[in-house]
Write a structure and sequence with these properties.
Layout: H1 2-32, E1 41-45, H2 53-61, E2 68-69, H3 78-81, E3 96-97, H4 115-120, H5 123-138, E4 151-156, H6 174-180, H7 185-194, E5 200-203, H8 209-222, E6 228-235, H9 241-248, E7 273-278
Parallel strand pairs: 4-5, 4-6
Antiparallel strand pairs: 1-7, 2-3, 6-7
Helix pairs in contact: 5-7
GO molecular function: fatty acid synthase activity
Protein name: Modular polyketide synthase
Domain Ketosynthase family 3 (KS3): 34-279
């Protein structure tokens, strides 16, 4: 009888110990799901000549207007694009927006990319790569030191309209233009060039793309899928298609300026930029 009681007691002790261990593990999992995620680095380029978070702060603090007339350096037919009548087909009744300075500027050699390949890369891919490098440096980390690390890349990016005419592709460059014009490659380009071995995900949920990308990055960190994560978004207008399309939908503010929460709100602003956080 005593022997059976001792066996039962030992069994209950083991079950109790296992239960406590399970409770500790469950608590760790639950707490990890609510663990704060730190922003340790950031970079950005926005209209108004903004090329850093500090310059963005200065622009906002000074209440400067970063909306300008349509750019003259993109081979757009500006005379044929504008028409004040929204009913006029194939034109835009808005001729202002938020544009980046020199979106074509890119130091390809710095990233070990040939001039031919760089020519085939959409501006979104170039800017995402530069933004990722600058965000890592902003955190005080040598980007080269992350090669081979479990760092994720989550970038919001929609349709690329960099090259829509196959006849414009230089001979021998079709392959570069094929991957260079793919939004899915935006995150992969960053991960491959920097040697990051976490998930590489491009997100397209329209205007919320960058926010959703950051949400997915936070989830990946909390679930232990990566130790660090680059998260952000990039947008560039390589053609006039957005102006023509949204004019047809009557979605643009005639003066090119959104007036959020105002009774005088009359449409949206088309704008460009890149912003990347290191989480």
């Amino acid at each position: 009888m005593a022997s059976n009681e001792e066996k039962l007691l030992d069994y209950l002790k083991r079950v109790t110990a296992d239960l406590r261990q399970t409770q500790r593990r469950l608590k760790d999992v639950e707490s990890a799901g609510h663990e704060p995620v730190a922003i340790v680095g950031m970079s950005c380029r926005f209209p108004g000549g903004v090329r850093s978070p500090e310059e963005l702060w200065e622009l906002v603090a000074a209440e400067r207007d970063a909306i300008t007339e349509l750019p003259t350096d993109r081979n757009w037919d500006l005379d044929g694009l504008f028409h004040p009548d929204p009913e006029h087909p194939g034109t835009s009744y808005c001729r202002e927006g938020g544009f980046l300075d020199d979106p074509a500027g890119f130091d390809a050699a710095f990233f070990g990319i040939s001039p031919r390949e760089a020519l085939g890369m959409a501006p979104q891919q170039r800017l995402a790569l530069e933004g990722a490098w600058e965000a890592i440096e902003h955190a005080g980390i040598d980007p080269e030191s992350l090669r081979g690390s479990l760092t994720g890349t989550f970038i919001g990016c929609d349709h690329l309209d960099y090259c829509t005419d196959a006849s414009q592709v230089p001979e021998g460059s079709a392959g570069y233009f094929t991957i260079g014009s793919s939004a899915s490659v935006v995150s992969g380009r960053v991960a491959y060039t920097l040697g990051l071995e976490g998930a590489a995900v491009t997100v397209d949920t329209a205007c919320s793309s960058a926010l959703v990308a950051m949400h997915l990055a936070c989830q990946a960190i909390r679930q232990g899928e990566c130790d660090l994560a680059l998260a952000g978004g990039v947008a560039v207008m390589s053609s006039t298609a957005p102006f023509i399309g949204f004019s047809d939908l009557r979605g643009l503010a005639p003066d090119g300026r959104s007036k959020a929460f105002s009774a005088s709100s009359d449409g949206m602003t088309l704008s460009e930029g890149v912003g990347v956080l290191l989480l």
